[in-house]
What we know:
There is one protein chain. The two termini are 30 Å apart. The protein is α+β, with helices and mostly antiparallel strands. It folds into 3 domains: 58-250, no CATH class; 259-277 and 576-720, Beta Barrel (Thrombin, subunit H); 285-542, no CATH class. Helix content is 47%, strand content 14%. It is built from 26 helices and 21 strands.
Amino acid sequence: MMKKTILLSLLTTFTIAGHADEGMWMLTDLKQQNAAVMYDMGLDISIDDVYSPDNISLKDAVVHFGGGCTGEVISAEGLVLTNHHCGYGYIQQHSSVEHDYLTDGFWAMTREQELPCEGLTITFIDKILDVTNYVKEQLKKDEDPEGLNYLSPSYLSKVAARFAKKEKIKTDEFTVLELKPFYGANKYYLFVKTVYKDIRMVGAPPSSIGKFGADTDNWMWPRHCGDFSMFRIYADKNGKPANYSATNVPLKVKKHIAINLKGVKEGDFTFVMGFPGRNWRYMISDEVEERMQTTNFMRDTIRGVRLRVLGEEMAKDAKTRIQYAAKYASSANYWKNAIGMNEGLVKLKVLDKKKEQQEHLLEYGRETGNNSYKEAFDAIRSIVAKRRNAVYHQQAIYEALMLGTEFYKVPDTDALRNAIEANDKKAIKEETENLKEAYKKFYNKDYNPEVDRKVSKQLIALYAKLIPAEQRISIFKQINENFGGNTDAFVDACFNKSIFRSQAALDAFLQNPDIKTLREDLMVQYSKSVKDGYNATSNAMKAETDEYNLAHKTWVAGMLELKAKNGTPVYPDANSTLRLTYGKIGSYEPADGMEYLYYTTLKGVMEKEDPDNPEFVVPAKLKELYEKKDFGPYAMPDGRMPICFATGTDNTGGNSGSPVFNSKGELIGTGFDRNYEGLTGDIAYNPQLQRAACVDIRYTLFIIDKFAGAGHLIDEMTIIK
């Protein structure tokens, strides 16, 4: 009773009416800002069990997967669960026409069969330290105290190293520091991290399960995909992080998450921990318009063309499909996101809401006699207007020429050219070998020059349509003078004549390299022109960027002050650091007369099946299990097989693979997506419409056990029935 009384009194401070399910909260602030609301909504364990700076907690079983996703440790021997789309690049890495794990799935039936994943890391967060005061002290001592080092990653890394030395925090290849600014650089947190580099693939369902619905269902609800995959962390015999070695052993982790099979129901409290990538909740309305007309416009326009060409080529043969599977999926993801975000921003009148929000702060400034908020607001509006053309052009270069044309990434030849000019035979030999190695990385098993040729023709021509002739990058002078403005002819010349067109062509050139050939090589010229063009757009708005950062810092400080005045908890924009979000499982109504339930079942897979559409093929064994109702202990109480559920947590990119916990801190699912109506959430959260789509853990275990026959993996988990 005493505990309840205290909690109820605290609720008056935190105002539940302010959408308690909005927010990507810092773990360090949970006790102060969120505990009361979380308990009132249904949390049934101590906050210290969720996060404790001094003891083992659930935080210690949540990992950064590969730097772009989240994972959770689900066994004492380092078994990690994440999304299928997070592991997709590594599934593809191990796939070939002979061993097509994308199509067929992969299951290691013994530890010896687990496959090493080159380049994959899994990172634990050991400590989170508020170092705001220390950083501000260092900034005061800086040679340029009025400069922009408060946002500089290189400067902040030096500050982190000084702090570590002062506090005797040891670092090495596997223990690293990350110091980041929050709230527009009004606060700073230091993350002490342990990085594991020997990660092995354990299991993945076929894409017909893991990507069921593919592009059609992406960012949509209801969903029917088993978007999961599993990996294992390996360490040396002493349990320390190590690079890959055949003698490494599975990591004995200090914490793993128990799994609950009791299922979910409407109104259940849930919370999610993960590494959300980016959002922009403190934008003013002018910035939202800029985002719609530049970044989102370019993603929609350019990626749509790229995806069409890639799709056509991938449909022609299995080798190309496997080569470009991960590239296609990566591009498609935020192509549809951009389309949905722009639609939602208009439909939900987000610009009007932003204008109301910013007027509140301006009025607060007038009331308190603080003119800095108005000055910051006016500065941001002016900056956005000045930089618009540069942002538009930069996004065109980035989407069409940097992401779209793969040959843009040909190796840099400057070092070899310098060696030749200096007639330094030793350096020439050294740089020749470096160029050979760099070329191997460029022209790898996942590169098809003929596919690149076709895509590049489309995208370079599209860039020319989007950007006025006088503004285009420098290579267009040569395209106009030597190819009559014909971009297709230019691309063909690149692929027919460049020293990088093939291994044989490069080897022949390197037998007797010369400056004239390097200088006239079209791929080399194109690559340099793209880089120079992108840098020119950055330089064109450097003054505005610097001014913007200062104004944004003041604007965010004002938003924080206003929220504090109203007794509203605050959270920083997402920046790929560990956060917690909470909300309740719930159905929703996207439009009049429509209601989407909070869960889906295997029946929906059978209803969507289309054997003529690769996005909706259903494996024969899954149909057999469905027809026999052979669901084992994973079925719902009424006998149906659950697949996904939706909950009102505040997720964004980077939360993919995040553990979804019930009120007792037990795993009930894995977050993998948001709904279409909630895509505006990166800019403005809508509690009525935004939902996180999650794979029900019961479906994950059903696929592992009944579909794959990998019950040995189930045996190493802690399961609550």
